[in-house]
Structure formats: C-alpha cells, structure tokens
C-alpha cells in the first residue's frame, strides 16, 4: 500500500475539522473527491490524468487508507468509518452532507490561490453528489458527478434524492439559470445511481449534461474506466476553467 510519487501531502482545516490532502500539477484547480473505499490506485491514476491535462489537482482524503486497493476488506472498513461519521449522510433525504462545508472551504482556498473563473469539483459514487453541493459556493465553476450514489438508493424516494437541502438546491438552480452547467456520468444500467439523473434534468433542464455509458459497470473513471467518460470530464474542465 504505497501512494504514488510526486504528490505533496498537506492538510486543510475548516471549522475545527481537518483532513489530509494530496496535491500535484499546475494550471486551473480541480478537487477530486475519492469514492469508497478511499484514494485507491485507480483514483490516483485518474487524478494523474487530470494533472497531465494541465490542472492543479487536490485530492482530500476523507476516509479509508490512502493507496489501498479496492477489496472487500477495504470497502467494509471504509463503510464502517463512513457510517459512524457525522460528516456524511447515508439514508436521510433532503439534506446536504455536513462535509460539504469543509469541501467548499477547500475550493475557496484553492480558487483564491490560483484565480481564474473558478475550480473544478469531481465526486465519485458515495461522494458523487458532493460536487453538486460544492457548487453552492461561487468558487466552483465545473461540478462533475460520477455515478452519484448517496443517499443509498434503497427506496424510490432515496433513489431520486440529490443529497441536497432545499435551500442548497435553490442555489444550484439559480446558478444553472445564470449559465452554470453540471456534468453527470454513469453506466446506463447502474442501479446505484437510481433516478438522480432524471431529478437533475427535471430541476435544471439543459444545464445538466448527461453522459450515459453502455455496458455493465459502476465506476466510470476509475475501476471500470471509460475513455468516453474521461474525455468528457477533461473537455468539461477545459471549457469551464480556462479563461477565454
């Protein structure tokens, strides 16, 4: 279990909460939020692709063991960690996960340092909806939702829920009405995403860009990496984050 070379380890603290971070690259900022079980080699490899595309990437480490692979054991340990943490919501609907405030603070800090139109924010699976919550802050100019899967889609209402409070959803809708776009990616047959893409289309219309992939899979840019998905993400960041 080793973390890739070339990443600078740091930390970010907001409102008394601190999480480690890993940073690499130059150019417009992008925050890559890992999936369960953590910053796996596949997550780090995708982040390297974003770096190579000309971005400063910051990966916060919210749970799990950095560098550990995706196994039954690592997934079970991360789920236990998530389930006892007050920073995350698992089943509640109509609420924003508390960790969103910490992530927005990280985005503001990175944007203040790097300037430009704003920063990108990408979440995956359990953290997929976090990118939507982050765009409540004006510092986030390119939110990307990879297979958003929280709250867990165990009932119809939960499968439609965006992991946002009504007030935060109103801000998202206002920003989209003013020209902001949101990119979402999923495998077409993935049950974990539920009906969230339909909810987003209903709430923000054409501002939601849907990329739905054929075939069986879940992790669009990592474990079942799709070149179509990666190209869509990098193109979205290029269009939204580079002035002019």
UniProtKB/TrEMBL annotation:
Domain of life according to the entry: Bacteria
InterPro entries tied to this protein: AB_hydrolase_fold (IPR029058), Dienelactn_hydro (IPR002925), Dienelactone_hydrolase-like (IPR051049)
GO molecular function: hydrolase activity
Key words of the record: Hydrolase
Record lineage: Bacteria, Bacillati, Actinomycetota, Actinomycetes, Propionibacteriales
Segments forming domain Dienelactone hydrolase: 23-144
Entry protein name: Dienelactone hydrolase family protein
Native species: Nocardioides renjunii
Disordered as annotated region, ranges: 1-24
């Amino acid at each position: 279990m080793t973390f890739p070379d070339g990443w600078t380890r740091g930390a970010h603290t907001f409102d008394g909460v601190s999480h480690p971070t890993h940073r690499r690259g130059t150019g417009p900022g992008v925050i890559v939020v890992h999936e369960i079980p953590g910053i796996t080699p596949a997550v780090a490899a995708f982040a390297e692709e974003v770096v190579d595309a000309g971005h400063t990437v910051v990966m916060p480490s919210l749970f799990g063991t950095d560098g550990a692979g995706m196994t039954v054991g690592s997934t079970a340990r991360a789920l236990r960690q998530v389930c006892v943490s007050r920073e995350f919501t698992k089943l509640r609907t109509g609420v924003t996960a508390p960790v969103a405030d910490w992530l927005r603070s990280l985005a503001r800090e990175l944007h203040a340092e790097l300037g430009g139109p704003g920063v990108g924010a990408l979440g995956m699976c359990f953290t997929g909806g976090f990118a939507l919550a982050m765009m409540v802050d004006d510092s986030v100019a390119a939110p990307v939702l990879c297979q958003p899967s929280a709250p867990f889609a165990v009932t119809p209402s939960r499968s439609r829920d965006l992991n946002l409070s009504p007030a935060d959803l109103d801000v998202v809708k206002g920003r989209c009405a003013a020209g902001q776009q949101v990119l979402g990616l999923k495998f077409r047959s993935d049950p974990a995403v539920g009906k969230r893409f339909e909810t987003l289309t209903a709430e923000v219309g054409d501002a939601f860009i849907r990329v739905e992939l054929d075939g069986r899979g879940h992790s669009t840019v990592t474990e079942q990496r799709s070149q179509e998905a990666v190209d869509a993400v990098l193109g979205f960041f290029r269009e939204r984050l580079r002035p002019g």
